[in-house]
Amino acid sequence: METQQQTKAESIKSVIDAMKSNRPLRAEEICRDYLDLKPGCTDHIRLLGHALMKQNRLAEAEDRFRFALKIKPDFPQLHEDLGSVLAMQRRFEEAIPCLEQAIRLEPRLPLAHKKLGQALAAVGRGEEADDAFEEYFEREPDKGLLVEGAELMKAGRFEEAAEIFQNALRQNPDNVDAMRYLAVAWWQNQEKHDDAEALLRRATELAPDFTAAWQNLGGVLITQGKHVDAIDCFRKATKLEPKNPAAWGGLGNACGLAGYADRSAAAYARCVELDPESPGMQMGYAHVLKTLGDQEAALRAYRAAIRIKPDFGEVYWSMANLKVFKFEKKEVDDMEARLEESGLTESSETHFRFALGKAYEDRQDFDSAWHHYHNGNQLQRTQVYHDPQEMKIRHDEIYEVFSRDFLAEQSGHGYEAPDPILIVGLPRSGSTLVEQILASHSQVEGTAELPQLSKIATSVGRYRADNVRYPVAAKELTQKDWRGYGKQYIEETRRFREEGTPFFTDKLPNNFPQIGFLHLILPNAKVINTRRHPLDSLLGAYKQLFGKGQNWTYDIEDLADYYRCYIEMMNHWHEVLPGKVLDVHYEDTVTDLEGQVRRILDHCGLPFEEACVNYHENPRPVRTASSEQVRQPIYTGALGRWRKYDAHLGFWKEKLADIIEDLPERIRSAG
User: Fold this and answer.
1) Phi-psi category of residue 176: left, alpha or beta, with phi > 0 → left and psi -120 to 50 → alpha
2) β-pairing, 526-531 with 503-506?
């Protein structure tokens, strides 16, 4: 008898271990093997039901629980299990008496009270649901704290919610629900991201099958720019719950941010298959389809999102952001009507304004287009932070540190890898075109706008007790430091490279202040600066609603100041590092494509290849706003576009008159 009991105990432990490690199929096999020998063991029948539930085989699980109840009709947990599986099938009316019977047989089942409350609420029996929940909270006081904290979070009172979750953790340090809620409170309050990550990692260690914690961890990692790590979290969530659309959507987002467009599209496709009525997921799917160049499918997904949520201004702007797309008259009328509605959020109005700007520009009504662009920018400027004075102070420090003498003294100690080709400049100045040209070369892979260089630079001195930070802290770097930072950049960017080519592009326009730092850590890296007529460049930025960053683009004066700072910085690099940077004017590229292709390739030490002239035939994913434009043969239609808005550009023409005057005549007169 003792041997038989031990055998049963060992079998149950094996089942539980398999379930904890998310192997429900293995748990099912162990249960069935045991039940072949002892078909009346209700413990194993119940565990088999749980393994089937985990695999979403709900009807089979229900059948097992009903069979077990015939053997042991007074087993309260089996009544709870049957109620649970019925509720999972949305058969709430049938679930309620099962859960009530479980509580009659064993009033101390806290989760049965909770499940009963949920089932009663689902069928509209609100007062009875409240009573059930109250009973649940009395039996599980820490659960009541979590509900109170969750309500505070819904109201945006994150600090108060965090205090409540911390109290719950003091009462029970291993409460994984409290860990998750506290992490989410910090994350949504945009603070303590490292602490939030640590809490969620701890929660997933204690509860490896805690799907929500894996999803939240993925979200926190995305916020920190750890996109590849986030992919692992969302992939874990999809394995735990294969029919969880949010998990698939998170995976699609993470893959897209990491540059894996094909994987992103596959994940989003599964997400919208499971939940076609989610406007946010339809929009995310459309974004990646746009990246892959499937404009027709992208428009279907964007319009599906609008059908579900007609006031979704961001989707209208996303359609406008296809650039080569034109709105139908009904869509323009719908947007105008939305602007007349009360209760429209500032974010929605901003998106509608930018979309309407594009719509009226396509109609050649440039005054109306400017009206919407200008109002949209004014709205957006109040939502973002940009201090021009801070930027000027930082640039002055860069000039002072990265002088000609300092660069000469410190040169020759960096990491020798020649792999990176950096493309810098201002957005909407032809950088995507240059990237596409280079990425069409057999020896070059086009990656994305990589943040690694600025992150590494600004990390210099981060932990100094005297609070001296980059760039001043760079004065004290050693020869080994320069080499170490160069190696770090190469290692951190390796995950974005899939093709095995010797060279790759890093097209983050905002890297232009870091060229001196780049030269010292990676002396063999190449740099191309993309330029465009200042008025076209600034107008292009003013018409663009960026997903994040570029906060200087939403105010006419900020734009002029930034452009002047950019020109001064590039003049500095040309002076102290002659020959390091190749300036490529957009106007020259579109009027003499082959000549500019040869210049670019010569600067990068690459042989000429015809594919670079035929860049538009390259099927690679392109994630920037110019994605559709660089899939077309070269065209000159965008030259001198600023002239269409000439009546509104007086401030820029005055503030940048000297810079415009210094341009070659062919650039000034283009278009």
Assistant:
1) alpha
2) unpaired
Q: In whole angstroms, what is the distance from residue 230 CA to residue 40 CA?
A: 45
First to last CA, the chain: 95
DSSP for 69-82 reads HHH-TT-HHHHHHH
The yes/no answer on whether domain 176-381 falls in CATH 3.40.1440.10 is: no
Closest CA relative to residue 322, chosen from 356, 358, 347, 352:
358
| pLDDT at residue 123, rounded to an integer | 86
> What pLDDT shows up at residue 69?
93
Whether 176-381 and 2-143 are alike in CATH topology: the answer is yes
CA 116: distance to chain centroid?
A: 38
pLDDT band at 143 (very low <50, low <70, confident <90, very high): low
User: Any idea what DSSP says for residue 526?
Assistant: E
Encoded tokens for 463: 């932990």
Q: What is the DSSP string of 186-214?
A: HHHTT--HHHHHHHHHHHHHH-TT-HHHH
pLDDT in tens, 636-645: 888 999 999 9
Average pLDDT, the chain: 89
Beta-strand ranges (E) seen in 160-298 are none
Class of domain 388-668: alpha beta
CA–CA distance, 512 with 431 (Å, rounded to integer): 12
- Whether pLDDT at 627 is above 50: no
Cα distance between residue 267 and residue 632, in whole Å: 28
Asked if pLDDT for residue 426 goes beyond 70, the answer is yes
Please give the order of strands across the beta sheet that includes 503-506.
444-448, 503-506, 420-425, 526-531, 581-585
Q: Determine the pLDDT at residue 142.
A: 57
Reply yes or no on whether the pLDDT at 94 is more than 70: yes
Q: Write the CA distances from 422 to 64, 197, 291, 510, 582, integer angstroms.
A: 62, 32, 21, 11, 11
Count other C-beta atoms under 10 Å from residue 612's C-beta. Answer: 24
Q: What is the residue extent of each domain of the chain?
A: 2-143, 176-381, 388-668
Supply the pLDDT for residue 265: 95
Instruction: Please report the pLDDT score of residue 5 as a whole number.
Output: 47
Q: What are phi and psi of 29, to 5 degrees?
A: -60, -45
Mean pLDDT of the region 478-491: 96
- Which residues partner with 504 through β-bridges? 420, 445
For 53, 57, 65, the CA distances from 33, given in Å and listed in that order, are 18, 19, 18
pTM: predicted TM-score of the whole model, two decimal places? 0.71
Residue 413, C-beta contacts closer than 8 angstroms, at least 6 positions apart: 479, 480, 482, 483, 520
Q: Which residues pair with 423 in a beta bridge?
A: 528
2-143 CATH:
1.25.40.10
Q: What's at 461, amino acid-wise?
A: G
Mean pLDDT of 157-182: 81
